[in-house]
């Protein structure tokens, strides 16, 4: 019998996975699904970003499935934190949010893939295999949204703060007080963000912000 080579041995090792999702049923469902695939092994599960970072340090999995919206640290923040310590970390965002800003932020943070939770099992498994091999996996609909975002001017941090307060129903006076700026400056920021978003009023700005994932309701 020929001895098993290092490359052959590594080829038989399962893909070690960390599953991160703050919804217990969703997380357990993913783990149960992955348990049926011999080539994959869930080594840890996390319900929030801080726990995910600690478990990543402990297990250093091959691939991480990362929820986007979580308490304490969201998926973008957690992805960025993991990648800062482990530049070769392979992370797939798995979410219900398909706004172009959500996609852009996740990929900017270092995610190698972006999947929507409505995908079928084979698409998920294929994405895990692809990312594990060192490649990226961005489905066509997601890529289209990303392309739209790349052709859109970015809001400044201050404009994003103003927009978040608009979505929260605040008046110009209330925004000025919250940000410690003048109402005139608030109006300047609003005019700029309306132009960048391609809308004409505050209501349209709020709707667009939520649709694109620029702002979320907590």
Secondary structure layout plus pairing:
Layout: H1 6-12, E1 15-20, H2 24-34, E2 40-46, H3 49-59, E3 63-66, H4 75-85, E4 91-95, H5 100-109, E5 113-116, H6 121-132, H7 140-150, H8 157-167, H9 172-179, H10 183-197, H11 202-212
Parallel strand pairs: 1-2, 1-3, 3-4, 4-5
Overview features:
single chain, alpha/beta, 218 residues, five-stranded parallel beta sheet
Poorly predicted parts: 1-10
Kindly report the average pLDDT value.
89
Number of strands: 5
Number of DSSP helical runs: 11
Largest sheet: 5 strands, parallel
| Gyration radius over CA | 20 Å
Q: Strand percentage, roughly? A: 5-15%
Q: Estimate the helix proportion, in percent.
A: 40-55%
Distance separating the two termini: 61 Å
SS-derived structural category: alpha/beta
Strands ordered across the widest β-sheet: 2-1-3-4-5
Principal-axes shape call: elongated
H-E string = HEHEHEHEHEHHHHHH
């Amino acid at each position: 019998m020929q001895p098993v080579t290092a490359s052959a041995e590594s080829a038989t090792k399962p893909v070690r996975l960390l599953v991160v999702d703050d919804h217990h049923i969703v997380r357990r469902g993913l783990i149960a699904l992955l348990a049926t695939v011999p080539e994959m092994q869930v080594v840890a599960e996390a319900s929030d970003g801080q726990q995910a970072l600690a478990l990543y340090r402990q297990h250093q999995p091959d691939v991480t499935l990362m929820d986007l919206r979580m308490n304490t640290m969201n998926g973008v923040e957690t992805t960025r934190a993991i990648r800062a310590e482990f530049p070769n970390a392979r992370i797939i965002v798995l979410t219900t949010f398909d706004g172009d800003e959500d996609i852009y932020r996740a990929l900017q943070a270092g995610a190698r893939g972006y999947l929507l939770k409505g995908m079928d099992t084979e698409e998920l498994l294929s994405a895990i295999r692809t990312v594990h091999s060192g490649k990226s996996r961005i489905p066509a609909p997601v890529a289209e949204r990303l392309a739209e975002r790349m052709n859109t001017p970015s809001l400044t941090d201050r404009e994003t703060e103003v927009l978040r307060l608009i979505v929260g129903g605040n008046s110009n006076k209330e925004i000025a007080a919250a940000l410690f700026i003048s109402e005139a400056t608030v109006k300047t920021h609003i005019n700029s963000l309306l132009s960048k978003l391609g809308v004409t009023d505050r209501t349209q700005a709020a709707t667009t912000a939520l649709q694109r994932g620029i702002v979320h309701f907590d």
